[in-house]
Design brief:
Domain Fe-S metabolism associated: 12-131
CATH class: Alpha Beta
Pfam family, one: SufE
Protein name: SufE family protein
Oligomer: single chain
Family: Belongs to the SufE family.
Number of helices: 6
InterPro entries: Fe-S_metab-assoc_dom
Structural class: mainly alpha
Length: 136
């Protein structure tokens, strides 16, 4: 499966940095680029269950392709979520269900820095995306 354009951009950016410090800085920058989520979307119904940090997620189907928006109260999580959005935005429901999260973060060379709780949280975000795409 070919990657969405934003995912290719993310991969190229992360493959050019060598040290963890540079990668962490880049991760924060990706998080800062996330568009602000409107206050009306920051409601309990949009909170992702299973995250230690607060993560809000909304999604909509547009011409058969999913577009998600998200926000988090934690800077590092915001960056990780931004990279997840880069990987999944524009996918169909079927493509969304076949996304391999560990593989994606391996490709970005970030998997070693994902604690079990962060991994679980990101999996919860992806599962919520899949749930939203199944309910249409």
């Amino acid at each position: 499966m070919s990657l969405p354009t934003d995912a290719v951009v993310a991969l190229e950016a992360f493959q050019t940095v060598g040290s963890w410090e540079q990668r962490a800085r880049l991760l924060m920058q990706w998080g800062e680029r996330l568009p602000a989520l409107p206050a009306e979307d920051k409601v309990d119904a949009n909170l992702v269950q299973g995250c230690e940090s607060l993560v809000w997620l909304v999604g909509r189907l547009q011409d058969g392709h999913w577009q998600f928006a998200a926000s988090s109260d934690a800077r590092l999580i915001r960056g990780l979520v931004a990279l997840l959005l880069a990987r999944v935005n524009g996918l169909s429901a079927a493509e969304l269900h076949s996304v391999d999260l560990p593989d994606w973060f391996d490709q970005l060379a970030l998997s070693r820095q994902l604690s079990p709780s962060r991994s679980n949280g990101l999996n919860a975000v992806l599962q919520r995306m899949r749930d939203l795409s199944s309910n249409t």
